[in-house]
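Handoff note, outgoing to incoming analyst
You'll be picking up this chain. Sequence as last confirmed:
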Amino acid sequence: MISRTSLLLVASAAFLPVISHGALVVYSFTGATNGSTGPFSPEGVATGVNASMMTASNMGNGTTGGVMSAFANPNDTSSPAYIFDGKGYSLNAGVTANDSTGPLDTPTLSTFTFTVTPTGAPITYTTLTLDFGSDLTNNVAINGTDFRFDLYYSIGGGALTQVGSTSLLSISSNTSHAVQNDLTKDLSSIPAFSSPVSGAVTFELRFGDNNSGAADKRIFIDDINVNGSVVPEPSSVLLLAGAAATLLRRSRKG
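Most recent structure output, in case you need it:
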């Protein structure tokens, strides 16, 4: 038989705030139409989080960029073949700005942008991950091309700040590609994210390459995840714990 005390504990636990861990927001293009250049809805949003549509700027026009189901270069003999799970975004790097060194900061930037906002308790951010790939589309051999990805953030509408350093993928010939699944940008090491964030955070993902040659170059993007947790503030947990203790004392007296 369940005691009165146990019932009170169960009842009080039901009012505790939900704690979300892992992927807070996911953009994976699975619900997008082939050829679409956005804006894109998030495919997953954790409890306690609001995520905006992801908008694209200078990310192609449907011919030079857009959502696709699979990618195949007949000249590419490297293995394994690069195929997204479901759908991904293919960008012809001929439309991107060329930065040979340093961060991607030369206009016109090719970007994905979205904003994450807590709906209640603040958010603890840990990482942003994505699948990042590249290859050459034709017989041209643009040896030594570095395909580049940078992540920037802004809190509460402030200035954009780079996270870490520029990520690179190198292609040596038109018969190969480069892939980095779950490429990770560490947010927890950034001072602005060292404690839970209660304001809106805008993320800007920048893409480009270091070669201003032929346009037969593609950047592949998929499974953009913002990871972290939504944890109730200590004051609210203590308040609920105090209420539960009061109920227990009254139960014992009764």
